Amino acid sequence: MKNQLNQPNDVLVIGGGAAGLMAAGTAAQNGLHVCLVEKNGRMGRKIMITGKGRCNITNHCDVQTFIASVPTNGRFLYSAINQFTPQDTMDFFEGLGLPVKVERGNRVFPQSDKARNVVDTLTGFVQDHGVQIVTGEVKRLILKEHKVGGVELEGGAQIFADTVIVCCGGASYPGTGSTGDGYKLARQAGHTVTELRPSLVPLVVHGGECPEMMGLSLKNVAIRVMDTEKKKQIYDDFGEMLFTHFGLSGPLILSASAHMREMSPDRYRIQIDLKPALSPEQLDARIQRDFEQNLNRDFSNSLNDLLPRKMIPVVINRSEIPPEIKCNQITREMRRHLVQLLKSFEFSVAGFRPVEEAIVTSGGVKVSELNPKTMESKLVSGLYFAGEVIDVDAYTGGFNLQIAFCTGRLAANSITSKDD
Length: 420
Fold this sequence. Notes:
Number of helices: 12
Distance between the termini: 28 Å
Strand content: 15-25%
Number of strands: 18
Structural class: alpha+beta
Largest sheet: 7 strands, mixed
Mean pLDDT: 92
Low-confidence stretches: none
Radius of gyration: 25 Å
């Protein structure tokens, strides 16, 4: 659509991600004249990489479970999630012709397993309701007497609007366009932006063991996260993880990172159960059988059926069993120590990877400065915020996209009801 920058708009939405597309399409569906400004050539670039390219749309849970899954300011979302629930999100996409399915942990995906279909559906929703799309980067808000009047783009062009919804995302994955623009606009309007921290982020581990196992993906393992200061377990789960050149990553690790709210070097320890389907006694019996089949072999050559190749040298080193000892010489005590090692393969966490590598940003526009029933600024009339730019973030499992959808929806519907 041709850019008519001097044409007045009822609503101007900044950002063509999940929150922005939902907000723009909903406002236009409600009969408002809407302009959507997106700096990328394509909409929904971050949506494209969620859920390993499959897009975990939402989590099929009740409102109470949803709020409990948002450790940062979950109660702020009470109105938003009640007005647009996970079931509403599922119905929304299916109503637009995109069938969805529910998988383990109530995670909801498109049946096609393609994030592209989610982006196409949201883009179609916006286009079908006549939203004017402008490609450009917003430089600043147009403000006058605590009221928003539009935006100024890089290059000096101005777009006027009675209402502006800021949906610029966070500071994670800057390659998708999430470069913290929304925080600058919020500060310009006088808003407080709380400390930005990575969430759902890979973990750094000191030492050379992880680089030795780099690229190794472990499936069907269990992990526990221990807080050494509080001396208690704070998280456990089952699934897939990955060793990298800097430490640990993969779905299990990203989920675990969201529970490490007070990161400091070596405060948190990750304990990996490499054989969660076996009790210690069953694992010991399994190891005995392997040793019996390799009686005259060196210990270092007896673990190929038990462990991935890249992991064997690390396990041997940790076990303190001499690699050249014959299997028929391994004592019960040595075997017991090996079982303990495989049931609790432990790493001390040095810290998070940078926020740019996080799936979501923790921190953002201070929620006490926003009206939770509308998402409107309490400081500037007509200015709204939705999605990751707000100081709310959740665990993995579709919760963060649901935040984007329900806050974008609420902001758009609030504009209509306010004008009515």
